[in-house]
Amino acid sequence: MTADAVERRQAITRLAREESGHVLALLAHRFGDLDLADESVQDALLAAASWDEIPANPAGWLYTVAHNRGIDRLRRAAAERRRHQSAAYLLSLPDEEVSEMIVEHSDVGDEQLRLVLLCCHPALDRDAQIALTLRLVGGLSTPEIAAAFLIPEATLAQRIVRAKRKIRDAGIPLSIPHSLDERVDAVLTVLYLIYNEGYLSRSSAGGRVDLVDEAIRLTSALASLLPNNAEVLGLLALELYGRARAAARFASDELILLDDQDRTRWDSAGIEHANRVLASALALEVAGPFQLQAWIASQHANARTAANTDWPAIVSAYAQLSLLTPSPVITLNRAVAVSMADGSHAGLALLDTITGLDDYHLYWATRGELLTRTGDPDAAADAFRRARALATNPAEQKHLDRRIAAL
């Protein structure tokens, strides 16, 4: 493949990832049909494969071609004549004017927000929300999403089709809901799940940095639309802290624990960016769980060495987080912090109060570490073996193999 061909392919990938969601949102609003908009954008992206050279305005090109493909589909669909008539005025616009709409349209941000909120409508289940957000807003392909969540491509495709059909049949509007805060909470939860899947993928040894970056991009877009939402900013800061440590988290496809990471490899500029975002969130003085998690991450990211970590403050933050969103996983993380602040026996005592995590590999991995520190190698080895049987990530499996061998 020539250098020009590689450059064109990379440009098409960027176009799909960074602009297809914007274009889809605009067309869905103009056509009043999510399926039509999605099919038109996909048609246009397929057409981009025949580029001889990269257009000067790729986003404008995508809008123009997708818009024209949508009009063609409307022309061919006699049963949709009413919708055709509502969009017919667009036929009279010169191509040059249409191609600039993606740049000049003042409601691009609002349309993108509408699409994100539509994908996370409470009528859809969580799996459908995640799939639609990645597919329609994030620009990821169906095979990419299926691979990320370890499900067959056909299953993922059916999930997306069912979700879009539910939106169509229920007449769910592409609009800003009255209860915006409730919908935003669902959006944040979906973006957090996407980030977590990328941070430590269930299948990729080194995590999925592309998914982490996608979560950051989508959360950044949401933050630009809702700049005074403290939790949106909190989630963005949390994601940025995690991304800043990416280069030091793995070595030879093995997971490196936080205390053992080479902190000189952390991205100091990324940490400073996260610090600024978190400061903006905290300045709004509206407490929330994502801000607390980001604050905890900031304590790790800004500690020059593992010994400089303020563990008592982190324990306090986890106590507050447990009050806001109690869960066994939060208690597990709190137990780790307690073990660092008050000793491994204290951490084990809190760990013993947890129920519901018997099938969670990190519970057993944590138990193995604490038992090792308290001088019980046999029980520690048993715990590590249970963690190893449950772990699916190759880097974690390799790390656990090493811990078992050491005992």
Description:
By secondary structure, the protein is mainly alpha-helical. It folds into three domains: 3-105; 106-204, no CATH class; 227-309, no CATH class. It has helices at residues 3-18, 20-31, 34-48, 58-76, 81-87, 95-99, 101-104, 108-119, 126-137, 142-148, 153-170, 180-199, 209-225, 230-244, 268-283, 289-301, 311-324, 328-342, 344-351, 361-373, 377-390, 394-406; strands spanning 250-251, 254-255. A two-stranded antiparallel sheet has the order 1-2. A hairpin with a 2-residue loop joins β1 and β2. α2 (20-31) crosses α3 and α3 packs across α4 (58-76). It is globular and about 75 Å long.
Instruction: Trace the largest sheet across and list its strands.
Output: 1-2
Number of domains: 3
Structure classification? mainly alpha
Which percent range fits the helix content?
over 70%
Give the CA-CA distance, first to last residue.
50 Å
Beta-strand fraction estimate: under 5%
Q: Given the C-alpha coordinates, what overall shape results?
A: globular
Number of strand segments: 2
SS summary, helix count: 22
